[in-house]
Structure formats: C-alpha cells, structure tokens
Write a structure and sequence with these properties.
The complex is a heterodimer of chains A (410) and B (434). Chain A is 48% helix and 17% strand. Chain A is α+β, with helices and mostly antiparallel strands and 410 residues long. In chain A, strands 3, 4, 5, 7, 8, 9 and 10 form a seven-stranded mixed beta sheet that branches. In chain A, strands 1, 2, 12, 13 and 14 form a five-stranded antiparallel beta sheet that branches. In chain A, helix 2 packs across helix 10. Chain A is elongated, with a radius of gyration of 32 Å. Chain B is α+β, with helices and mostly antiparallel strands. Chain B starts with a helix and ends with a helix. The longest helix of chain B is centred in the C-terminal third of the chain and has 35 residues. Chain B is built from 14 helices and twelve strands. Chain B is 49% helix and 14% strand. In chain B, strands 1, 2, 3, 4, 5, 6, 7, 8, 9 and 12 form a ten-stranded mixed beta sheet that branches. Chain B folds into two domains: 175 residues, no CATH class; 246 residues, no CATH class. The chains are: A alpha+beta (410), B alpha+beta (434).
C-alpha cells in the first residue's frame, strides 16, 4: 500500500481532514478523562466498610423532653435490651456513628503529650462490647472490650477512655513496622493516655471522601456509651430476617418509650440503603460520564461516516478510473481504510497530548489523581478501531463502484 | 430574499434527511448538556443577597496559642465567645450579629401532635435587618431582649403553618425544651442560597425554622450544632463555652462603604494587638475581612463535581460543533455545481454566503430548540437527585436567553467556515466539469 498518493489526496481536502482529526483528538481527550473519573468513582464505591453489610440496619434516634443529658442512659440500656431480645435480631449496638453515616467525631492521635502535630487523624466510635459482633468487624489481635469496661458518659463531658481498639490501618500509621497492641496513645490534649487492647482488621470512617480521604480506614473504638439527645442503633438481624426486623425494631422502640423521634428521612435504613445514599452522587457522576463517553463516540463515528461518504461520492469518477486501470475492489477498500487510519493516527497523537494536558488542568482544579497512561492507550485503540469501523460502510460502497463509471460524462 | 433562502435551505435539508438529523441531534445534545450543567452552576454560584452582599463581611481573627503557628496561614473560620461578644458590643459596624446553629425540641400544645426537633439559629437582634429576612407577622426581637436573655422566639413560615395553620401567631406561647417562649415574629418564606451565614449546616440547606436570642440559648443550655475547633489545654464542655479556647460562633458585620471596611480591618488588627498585650492571643495579629462572596469562594461552596460536569459538557459541545462544521462542509461542497450555476447567473459571493448561512442558521435554531427540550429534561433529572441543591435547579429567563444565543451563535459560527469555503469555487470550472 502506498501512502504517498493518499497523502497527496488528503492535501486537497485539508479542511475536512483537519476537522476529523480535531474531532478525534477532542473525543480522545474527553473520553480518557471521563473513563478515568468513572474508574475513580467505581473504586471509591467498591471500598469495603470492614463490616458484614448483609442483615445490617441502622436507626437514628433523638430523645425529646429529657431532663438532662444523662437522663438517656437508662433509656438506651432499656432500648438495647428490647432490641437484643426482639425475635429475628442477632445483636444490637448503640453508637455515635458508623461507616458511611456521614457525620461523626474525628480527632488527632498523639504518641506522647509533647507532640505538637498529631501523628494521625482518626474517627472515634463510642460503642460497647457488642460492637464487633453487631458490625461484623474482624478482630485480628488482642481482645474485645469486656462488659465491665463500658461506661456511660455525657458527650459534652467526655475526656478520655483508658482502653481503646484501633484499626490495622491506624496501627500501621502510628507504629510503622510494628503493632499498636499494648501501646499507649493520646486522643486529646491534656488527658491521660489510652491503651490499645485490640486491633480490628478494617473499619471505615463515617465520611466517604473529601477531607477524610487520607484517613478513610483510621478508626478508634472506645468502650464508652455516650448519653445525650442523639443515639444511633446498629442492628444485625438473623440471616435473611432483615425485612421483618426493619419493621419490627422501630415499633418495639416506640412501644418501649414514646419520648423519641425517628426522623422520617434516614431514620430507619437497611445498610444497603445507607450505602446507596452515601454513594448516590458518585454513582450519578459515573453514569453521567458513561453516557457522555457513549454519546461522544457515537457522534464522532457518525461524523466520520458522514464525511467519508461525501468523499466517496465526490471521488466516484476517480475510483472508476482506478478500477478501469486494474485496481481490485480490495485496493479501493484498503485505500479508504488507510486514509482513515492516517487521519486517525494524527488525531490520537494530538488527542493523547490533549488528554494529558486536560488531566493536569483537572488535577489542579478538582484535586484529581494523575491519569494513568493505560487509559490513554486504551482510548487510542478504541478511537482507531472506531474510525476503521465507521469508515467500513462508505469504503465498501466505494469498492462497489464499477469501472464503467470512468467512462461516464467525461 | 430571506424567504427565498429559507425555502432553499429547507429543500436542501430535506434532500439528505439523515445528515440533517445528525447535525441537529449533535447540536441539540451539546447544547442540552452544557445548558443543564451551566444552569446548575449558575444557580449554585448565585448571590444569596443581591444588592446587599457587597456590604456584608465575615471578620476572621487568630486567637490560637503559638503551637503550630505558620505565618500567613488563614486565621480561624469562626470566633470564640469572648471575641464574638467583644466585637458585637463594640458596634464598630453599621450592623453586626453573632450566631450559632442548633437543634431544639419543640413540645406543641396542640393535642395529638408529638414533640419534634427543629433546626434553630441562636443569634442577636441585628440578624434580621442585616440579612433582609422578610417578616410575615410581628417583628424581630430587640437588643434589650438580647441583653435580658428574654424568652422570645421568631419562627419560620413553615413551622407557623404546621403549628398555627399559617395564621398570625405572634403573642402565642411556644414550648421548647420545657421552657415557654413568646412568639414575637413569623418570617415569610426565606431561603438564601447558598446558606451563606453558616456553611457548617450544609452549603445549600434550608433556612432554620426557629430563631432564639443567643444569650437565651446559652442561658437554657440549648444544644448547639456545627463545627467547634479547640486548642490549648482547656476542655470544650458545655458549661464553660463562654471562657473556653474554642471557636464555634459565626460573626457577621455590615459595613456600608469601602472606607468603613478598611477602617474595620484596621480595628480588627488593633483589637488583636490589644488582646496579645493582654496575653489572650499569642500569635502576631492575623486578621482577614472577606466579603460575603469572597467568603463563598474561599470555602469552595460550589461543589467540585458540578464545575467538573460543566467543564466536560462544554468539551462535549465543542466536539459536537466540530462534528457539525465537518458535516456542513461536506454538504456545502457537494453542492458546488448548484452554487456554480447561481454564481454564473449573476449571484454575488455575498449572496451565496448569505444563503448558506441561512441554512446553517436553520440547523442551529432547530438544534437549539432540541437542546432546550433536552436541558429541561436534564434539569428535571437533576431535581430528582438527592443532593440538597437539587430543588433549586430551574431554568430562569436569562439562562433561557443564553441557551438560544449559544445555540444559534455556535451554529452560525460553525457555518462560517463551510460557507466561506463553498463560496470560493470558480463557477466556470464547476460548469465545465458537469
């Protein structure tokens, strides 16, 4: 296949050639970055919370008409008793927050009181000895809290807890190369240290992104039952009985005590709903990017078909002459395929640079990660194949031009 | 002549329906996508108080100890009780208000109504006139009531409708956390966007339904909400919030002229120096006085995702336009023969150019119309998203106009190159070869 005559022909169609190449370049740049955004969102959505999420549900409870902040202590105790005895319930837990809830406590961890800057950031889950069983989190070293360790404290008066459990991620961050088990950490200024008694394999923080991205698995569990106006219950049903517990649990709570409000929005949710709510915007963004990619590729393909069809129509006479002079149908077909490949190569070359430039700009503007070259290579291949696919129909029509066309109207 | 060109354009467009449809659909998709995202961006980056926002400022101080001091870093984003009260009482601005968010349990007298929680704002008297909060009934509370920790409350229209059926409820008694409050005012529907005066509550959240004097809320130990940032050795427990080394309050000031703003910034520096001399502040004076819109920018109120979507949508529109230029070029060049005949019969280049531009204008207009429908559909989809700004996404008159100008302008621009190229033909050559 000679390239020379193709280039010579393209020189006579500078504007059209340039436009197709430009369209391919722009499409490549946008599709690469959109695919990359999709991948980042999907990766975020598929992160594990560290809990066993089936048969798990959450209830948001607000107490009304309490005389003071400590008045909720016996109420929470009674609630837990009701919930744990409910048929279909395996275990239940009162906590301040849970993974993907969206709000919670965060604090800096220091290894000694003199440290000016915290060694790591962590979230604090105030729980009791039922936490691991209810959440389905895995203890990989040390021990769980003992029931007699758990104390009830007004959230506004909380100072420190003598024992804590931490996640492996936090342990690794605080003590690289060794384990936090048995060591002492400081969770706030001017308080005595807390001893780490257990290491949990993984437990995500309540926030799903943004400022929490650099400590997404740094969690600390404290054997403290927070009193106050707000309590969150996590409930694990017996396998397969979640649907009935979702109905029965709030009813049982209201039967035990009416001095409460379960917000109509997000008051009672299965964990599947929690996850869906938490990642709704990420999923939406990924879907939107997917649609943009598909439509963009479709439009580019249609554009190539349109312009090549026009070129074929314009060159019918020349094709006829070539055919009359002995060119085979195959020669004509390869001619158009090669022509498209050349334009496509020019386009993707510029497009790859554009994609990386666009990524650099996005990194500055939207704190995105660096685009992996794999996406650019994939994009290049996809667009070249797309070009060849779209040019096929018009090229085959060109190949069918009979040699007799050469004799017409000359 | 225009009518004739229009007729020619329609004939030509009808001749190749697929190509025409492709061009119109491409433009419609591009316009629809960019208008949807642009409208959301426009709504979200809007001015919450048009005409007033330029006179509102958010003073920032740096009362922290010298631990972790880095020169030039941003001062605290909120103020302590002591500083807030000092600034409030000094009355250096035209108006000023100190505030915090909160939650209050409401215990309705109405039978059959369960107690419930309502979002509340604990603030001082100037809040209402300073932020142009519209009163449906009654009035704001006075400074004297601020000072006397009066049990007075202003409620929102929504709460008023729920408890009193939208009737004038001023003078009635509302029980909150076992205390009787006298309703002094009812606000009309009011939802500044963004929720600028306290971004901790969510950038686009609803306005609160309960407004109580800040002094009263502290007196009754109402639950306050929002972010609290402490330093040093002091605790942050609720009983000592007035003296603790924690920032948890928002302070806003109204300054009606740039000269007053400059003077106020000077006053803040002076105040910091004074506090440092007293030993309360340890860092060198570090004060800022962002205006309302600057404060929105500093806090990156518009979500990054929304800006990203708008950016990508415009990239999408660009590809659609390049696509249309290519197709239009092909279409016009194909008609060289016809155009050659017109030229030979005496039509000027300018006339040909006008004819071709009319044709691209028709495509632009139909594409724009399609884009508008798609934008309406897109916005409808956005409104059904769970985000707190979803319900704000509506097309207003200015955005409608922009859509149309964008559609027609873009297509005319896209038609320029092909039309110009098509006009360059030599009539003789075209006639000969046919």
């Amino acid at each position: 296949m000679q390239i020379q005559p193709i280039l010579a022909a393209l020189k006579r169609h500078k504007a059209g050639t340039f436009l197709i190449a430009l369209q391919i370049a722009l499409t490549l740049a946008i599709v690469c970055n959109a695919l990359f955004i999709i991948q980042q969102r999907v990766e975020r959505i598929s992160r594990s919370t560290g809990m066993i999420e089936t048969d798990l549900m959450a209830i948001q409870n607000m107490w009304v008409g309490l005389s003071d902040e400590n008045a909720s202590e016996p109420l929470i105790k009674a609630d837990l008793q009701v919930l744990r005895q409910l048929p279909g319930v395996q275990d239940a837990l009162a906590t301040n927050s849970y993974p993907l809830r969206g709000g919670g406590w965060s604090t800096g961890v220091r290894l000694n009181p003199e440290m000016k800057k915290p060694a790591a950031q962590t979230t604090q889950y105030f729980v009791d000895d039922h936490a691991l069983a209810t959440m389905g989190a895995k203890l990989i070293a040390g021990r769980n809290f003992r029931p007699d360790e758990v104390v009830a404290i007004d959230p506004k008066k909380f100072q420190f807890s003598p024992t804590v459990m931490v996640t492996k991620a936090l342990s690794d961050k605080l003590f690289p190369g060794s384990s936090a088990l048995g060591k002492q950490i400081y969770l706030s200024d001017g308080t005595p240290p807390s001893t780490v008694v257990g290491i949990v394999e993984r437990l995500q923080v309540p926030w799903k992104g943004g400022f929490a991205d650099n400590f997404e698995a740094n969690s600390t569990l404290l054997p403290v039952q927070l009193t106050g106006n707000f309590t969150t219950y996590l409930i694990r049903s017996k396998p397969g009985q979640l649907a009935s517990v979702l109905k029965a649990a709030p009813e049982a709570l209201f039967k035990a005590n009416r001095m409460r409000v379960l917000p109509s929005e997000r008051g009672v949710r299965s964990f599947a709903m929690v996850r869906q709510d938490a990642y709704k915007s990420d999923r939406g963004m990924a879907i939107l990017m997917g649609i943009i990619c598909v439509v963009l590729l479709g439009i580019t393909a249609a554009g190539i078909v349109g312009l090549t069809s026009f070129w074929v129509g314009q060159r019918r006479k020349q094709i006829g002459v070539r055919r009359a002079l002995g060119a085979t149908k195959n020669d004509i077909l390869t001619y158009f395929l090669t022509e498209n490949l050349l334009i496509g190569l020019g386009g993707v070359l510029v497009g790859a640079l554009l994609a990386m430039g666009m990524n650099l700009w996005l990194m500055k503007q939207f704190e995105m990660a660096r685009l992996s070259p794999l996406y650019v290579i994939t994009g290049v291949i996809v667009l070249l194949l797309l070009g060849q696919g779209s040019v096929l129909a018009p090229a085959m029509r060109a190949a069918r031009v009979p040699p007799v066309e050469a004799t017409r109207s000359v | 002549m225009f009518g004739y060109y229009l007729d020619l354009a329609l004939r030509s467009l009808r001749r190749n329906k697929m190509l025409t449809a492709l061009m119109v659909v491409a433009i419609a998709l591009g316009i629809g996508a960019s208008m949807t995202t642009l409208t959301v961006l426009h709504v979200l980056s809007g001015d919450p108080l048009p005409g007033k926002s330029a006179t509102l400022f958010y003073p920032q101080l740096d009362p922290r100890d010298s631990d972790g001091y880095v020169p030039g870093k941003m001062p605290m984003e909120q103020v302590t009780w002591i500083d807030g009260m000092n600034l409030l009482k000094s009355k250096r601005g035209d108006r000023q208000a100190l505030m915090s968010g909160g939650d209050v349990p409401i215990q309705p007298d109405q039978s059959g109504m369960d107690p419930f929680f309502a979002d509340a704002r604990f603030t001082s008297a100037d809040f209402f006139p300073m932020f142009n909060a519209p009163f449906l009934y009654g009035r704001p509370w006075s400074e004297a009531e601020d000072n006397s920790k009066a049990r007075v409350v202003v409620i929102g229209r929504e709460l008023n409708a729920k408890l009193y059926g939208d009737k004038d409820s001023t003078g009635q008694v509302l029980r909150m956390q076992d205390t009787a409050f006298r309703i002094v005012g009812v606000l009309d529907d009011w939802r500044p966007n963004p929720h600028f005066y306290d971004l901790n509550m969510g950038n686009y959240s609803d306005s609160e339904q309960v407004f109580v004097p800040l002094s009263t809320s502290r007196d009754l130990r109402f639950e306050h909400n929002g972010s609290m940032n402490c330093w040093g050795k002091g605790g942050s427990d609720d009983d000592h919030l007035e003296t603790s080394t924690c920032v948890w309050l928002q302070f806003w000031v109204q300054l009606n002229s740039p000269a007053k703003a400059a003077a106020y910034e000077e006053y803040l520096t002076h105040y910091s120096q004074e506090q440092k001399a007293l030993g309360r502040f340890q860092r060198p004076p570090n004060v800022r006085l962002p205006s309302l819109m600057q404060w929105m920018d500093i806090n990156k109120v518009v979500p990054g995702d929304v800006r990203l979507q708008a950016f990508l949508a415009f990239g999408f529109l660009l590809v659609c336009l390049v696509n249309t230029v290519g197709l239009m070029l092909a279409k016009f060049m194909r008609r060289s023969a016809e155009l050659g005949v017109r030229r030979a019969l005496g039509a000027s280049r300018r006339a040909l150019f006008a004819q071709l531009l009319v044709e691209s204008g028709v495509i632009g207009l139909s594409g724009g119309l399609g884009g508008l429908l798609l934008a309406l559909l897109g916005l409808w989809l956005v409104r059904h998203q769970p985000s707190d700004y979803a319900q704000l996404a509506h097309l207003d008159a200015s955005m409608l106009l922009i859509t149309f100008l964008l559609a027609v302008g873009a297509t005319l621009l896209a038609g320029l190159l092909p039309a110009w190229r098509a006009c360059q033909i030599t009539p003789a050559l075209q006639l000969k070869s046919n």
